[in-house]
Amino acid sequence: MMSQEDMLMDQGSNREELNLLDYWFLLRKHGKQILGLAFVVTLLVALVVFQITPVYRSTALLLIENSKSKTLSLADLYDIQGSAGQEVFNSQVQILKSRPITELVVKKLGLSTNPAFNMPKQTGWFDLAFQDAQEPQGTPAELEAQRFESTLGKLSAGLTVEPILKSQIVKISFDSTDNELAAQVANAVAEAYIENDLEARSQMTQRANMWLTERMDGLRKALGESEAALQQYREQENIIDNKGVVLSGSGKQLEEISTNLIAARQRLAEAEGVYNQVKDIHEDSFESMESLPAVLKNAAVRQTREVESNAALKLNELQSRYTAMHPKVIAAQSELNSAHEAVNREVKAVVKGITKEYELAKANVAANSRALGQVKGDIQNLTRKEFKLSVLMREVESNKQLYDLFVNRSKETDVASNLQSTAGRIIDPAVIETVPLKPKKMQTIGIALILSLLMGMALVLVSDYLDNTLHSVEDVERRLGVEALGTLPILPAGGSKPGWASRLYRESPNSLYSEAVRTLRTAVLLSAIDEPHRVVMITSSLPGEGKSTVSVNLAFALGQMKKVLLIEGDLRRPSMAAAMVGMEGVRGLIDYLADGVNLKSCIHNTESANVFVMPAGKRFNAPLELLSSQRFGETISKLKELFDVVIIDCPPLKPVSDSLVISRYANAVLFVVKAESTPHQLATAAIERLQNIQAPLLGVVLNQVDYNKADQYGQYEYVYGQEQKSATRTFLGIKV
């Protein structure tokens, strides 16, 4: 099974095919007009084309060589060749179009006196009347200058210079009514370009030689002055050569002094730490000096302390055995005193040594700092000398190179002045053409034919697009957005009796119109099979769209199957009495609603046993009040019980609102639109009024359709067969 999306896609494709067919049938319908327009336009173009004087074009091919002249290759001298090759090529193309080239051609070929460039104008009666005013005024020299300028302008207008892509070849073309002159001018332009280029190169070479000579004198003087300044500086600073001033030795010295200074500062920091421990200790404070870490670590101090300890042990041992006055005890005591004094001497010596070491470390740091500053100064002095020396040497070298370059270029210029090459050469000269460039008669006529056909088609399509009326079922559904129930064919104007169209279904049942009414009846019945429509209301946008005719004929069509009552709901302009035989002056809806007469006396029989009519009746000044009354609603309900179908012929929606009131009691609303007459905007507005009150709009009936035109659109073939279509029927003397 196909999905809903596939079905929608198929519907869109079919709609597009129908639109294309519509366009095709529309163009086929107006085919004679389109062909007539194309014939007239093409004929006029052909007449004009055969009157035009033919123009010939001759073309010469010129190769522009992208070779640099040796006299102009010095980048500092001329920067002409400094651009990209394509830019140079484009510049040469512009030179080909320039005034100097055209002036050379005019002078070389004598074009100022050529009749093709100075042909007298054809004068008419208007020109003859003002001939004196139009003749140029001035001296012979001024007239000659004017003629020369006019010739230049005509030459430039006919000249075409076109480069060939991805090559260095240029097409030089000239258009003229004289084919021989066209070839001469094209070749002359190419030759003039070559001559002009040679002259320009020769002049440029002479200017280059003069400039080079002047510049070389200045460079020679500048080179001598720079060499003298370099030598003077070397002598002044006692520089033997450029290698005598170097920084490598000073750099090593600076690195050594910096290393020594760092080590000296490290030793000073260590000495200062020890010195800070002893500087505040008094000389008599032996215990404080003795407890210093530097003193305790001293080897001599440790050695004297060891001697002192041994002496103390020895004294203690002797005192334990002898008395204090014993000679051994006295000797040991003396030895201990000597050892103690030795310890004091060593401790004081260590303390004095710490102070001296601190002072020495300070002096070492100061000496290294002074040496570092002196070396830096020397290095800076050497750097300045070397920088100035390098500047002087570079100036000498630069002047020497530039001087040598100019000397070489001067020699090349002397050689190349005798070997000048051209920037271009003719590779294919122009020839005399026998086939004109324009007008291309057959091509122009063919294009005129095609464009005129397209213009005719466009006019037809635009005219159809601007048409805001409805022509077909597709127009109804596309523009109104409402289902089309059917179409009714157009009926010719006239008729032998009033209301003949309303009786057409009864009196000509085999006509095309009757067949269309039966089709409409089928659509109405099939729209509600389970719950048939009991009250059908028929209205339109404007008067004259045929709603009453549709109402009457549809009533008789339904009357063949059901019991039908036709009510004339248009109480303002009643017309049903004229359509029905014997209905003039009878009672109707107004009589029943306003005067309360018997309902049966307001319903009248017709020729059909199943069709009854309730006309409007007498005139009433406020019909809308009657239709809005409760009695009208009760009447419709009562009539629904008496009849199978009640059809109400209502007034149009645009001028009055009666139909909106009646639609409250209807089960189905048929909206009649007159084909090729009613604007779709107006019909849309009326339909929206019905939809706004939720009226049961069943669909649209497209009335008075011209089936002959519709057949040209390829539509409505389904309404009748070929046999019916070809048959001719008449009703009351009118073909139907």
Q: Would you write up a description of this structure?
A:
By secondary structure, this protein is of the alpha/beta class. Among the domains are: 248-411; 476-493 and 501-735, Rossmann fold, CATH 3.40.50. It is built from 26 helices and 14 strands. A hairpin with a 5-residue loop joins strand 8 (604-605) and strand 9. The radius of gyration is 63 Å and the shape is flat. The model is unreliable at 1-5, 7-18, 74-83, 121-126 and 712-736 (pLDDT under 50).
Provide the fold topology.
Layout lengths: L3 H26 L1 H19 L6 E9 L20 H12 L2 H11 L15 H5 L1 H4 L5 H19 E5 L5 E8 L2 H58 L11 H31 L7 H5 L2 H4 L2 H23 L5 H90 L7 E5 L12 H26 L6 H8 L3 E6 L14 H4 L4 H15 L8 E6 L6 H13 L4 E5 L7 H4 L9 H7 L8 E2 L5 E4 L8 H6 L1 H13 L2 E5 L8 H5 L5 E7 L5 H13 L4 E9 L1 H6 L9 H5 L3 E2 L2 E2 L1
Parallel strand pairs: 5-12, 6-10, 6-11, 7-9, 7-10, 11-12
Antiparallel strand pairs: 1-3, 1-4, 2-3, 8-9, 13-14
Low-confidence stretches: 1-5, 7-18, 74-83, 121-126, 712-736
How far do the termini sit from each other?
46 Å
Alpha-beta content class: alpha/beta
Q: What is the arithmetic mean of pLDDT? A: 78
The largest sheet has its strands arranged as: 5-12-11-6-10-7-9-8
Number of E-state strands: 14
Helix tally equals 26
Assigned CATH superfamily of the domain at 476-493 and 501-735? P-loop containing nucleotide triphosphate hydrolases
Oligomeric state of shown chains: single chain
Indicate the CATH architecture of the domain at 476-493 and 501-735: 3-Layer(aba) Sandwich
Strand percentage: 5-15%
Helix content: 55-70%
Anisotropy-based shape: flat
Largest sheet: 8 strands, mixed
Give me the CATH fold name of the domain at 476-493 and 501-735.
Answer: Rossmann fold
Radius of gyration: 63 Å
* Name of the top-level CATH class of the domain at 476-493 and 501-735: Alpha Beta
